[in-house]
């Protein structure tokens, strides 16, 4: 709703986007809901012209939605993550040494936590005893 307003498709969608986000935010203001508003890509917000526009617009959306208590935070860089994605901040960008990785029976070379590990995935499939796992749907 802030950047690319020089693109016709984007500028034409801005008011509908604003109304929809405000409406949804207001409707989801429930006791059992915690919301995080997506503030966009930090690369866009880092532009001096965009930052002020974005903060003003986010404040307007929040106020138009009756300042919902269920809004807990703003998020950036969340594109492509689905509802089941959990961001792990425990490592905070620090690489670590795990002494378990040096064991002779460790599956090496293992990537950092949170990175896809194809060999481990294949090992899990190979070792799975699916016949003994009754599934009821």
UniProtKB/TrEMBL annotation:
Q: Which UniProt keywords apply?
A: Hydrolase
Give the UniProt record's GO annotations in the biological process aspect: cellulose catabolic process
The molecule here is called 1, 4-beta cellobiohydrolase
Source domain of life is: Eukaryota
Can you name the source organism? Answer: Coniella lustricola
Q: Name the PANTHER family on file.
A: 1,4-BETA-D-GLUCAN CELLOBIOHYDROLASE C-RELATED, PTHR34876
Instruction: Name the Pfam families on file.
Output: Glyco_hydro_6
**One Gene Ontology term of the molecular function aspect:** hydrolase activity, hydrolyzing O-glycosyl compounds
């Amino acid at each position: 709703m802030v950047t690319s307003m020089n693109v016709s498709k984007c500028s034409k969608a801005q008011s509908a986007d604003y109304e929809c986000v405000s409406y949804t935010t207001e409707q989801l203001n429930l006791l059992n809901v915690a919301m995080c508003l997506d503030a966009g890509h930090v690369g866009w917000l880092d532009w001096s012209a965009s930052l002020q526009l974005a903060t003003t617009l986010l404040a307007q959306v929040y106020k138009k939605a009756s300042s919902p208590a269920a809004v807990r935070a703003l998020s950036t860089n969340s594109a492509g993550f689905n509802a089941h994605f959990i961001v792990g901040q425990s490592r905070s960008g620090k690489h670590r040494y795990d002494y378990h990785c040096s064991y002779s029976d460790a599956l090496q070379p293992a990537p950092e936590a949170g990175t896809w590990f194809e060999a481990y995935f294949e090992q899990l499939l190979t070792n799975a005893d699916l016949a003994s796992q009754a599934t009821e749907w």
